[in-house]
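Researcher: Let's continue the batch. This sequence belongs to Diiron oxygenase, and it's 307 residues. Same format as the previous ones, please.
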Amino acid sequence: MLNQTHEYQSCIQASERVAWKIDDLLPKDTSLDFTRRFLSDSLTNTEGITCLSAGEKLMLNQIRSNSYAHLFLFLEEYAVALAAQRAGLELHGNPTHMRALLRFSEEELKHQQLFARYTETFARGFKVPPALLDNQVAVAKAIMSKSNLGVLFFNLHMELMTQQHYVETMRDNERESLDPLFRNMLKHHWQEEAQHTRLDFLEAQKIIDGAPDMVDAAMTEYAELLQALRGTLNAQLQLDLQTFEKAAERTFTEAERKEIFDAQERSYVYGFIGMGMKAPLFLSRMRTLSPRAERRVLELAPDYYCN
Ligand SMILES: [Fe+2]
Ligand SMILES: [Fe+2]
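Model: Same format as before. Here are the structure tokens for Diiron oxygenase:
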């Protein structure tokens, strides 16, 4: 394998250049502006729901944005473990690799704390207490029971998707109407994730160079992780609908509930899974790691509303 130490060094330098503090993005005493939508409609799919008033659409957008922050806190629980485990493998090995991976792990902990502060800030200002999943440790342990290569593929997907999410909030038709605080958070999250995606790729390459036969099994694990994530998204969606019904102060009919559920299910699955599979950089990285890996992603894509 090529000596990639300069690549790891370049990740450290890029990370130092873009590093931010939680207090700069979201000071402790922040009040959110609940007159605005927080996330782009391409990620919340609330505007097209015919049974909702404009005020209800806004409220559902805000509930989804809060769940978005929480789900990243949730997913970063395994990312911390993954980066820390990969860093540990370089103990007494390559100090530059280890330092880059330790920064990766520290940044994910920081992201979790940022998103936790966001959900606390949200809960202080929102009409009703939002219901959120709380089993992130069990989920992280289940994810980490897979091989490092399977989890690295999954993580590369998740992290490149945060770029897509930021890009969606910058589209001309929505940019001015969205809350600048949330948009800024997505921007800074992606700026640090960008280095993580490079490290996922380098670490995956390290494993494949030593054991090229592992790719097929790791892709099976990747597919299993996507399925499991779909279950987690669905569980959060059920909680969102409970929160929404309380906040909107009305009970929806069966037909209305189905309309809302279907729109939200599609948006969760596409926004958290499909959008990543469509990211050109994800496909090209997977192709470089192994053309078989890219082919498998393309085979799985239609299951996630990604044609
Ligand atoms: Fe992160
Ligand atoms: Fe990350």
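Researcher: Any comment?
Model: The pocket of fe (ii) ion (ligand 2) is lined by residues 79, 108, 159, 193, 196 (CB under 6 Å).
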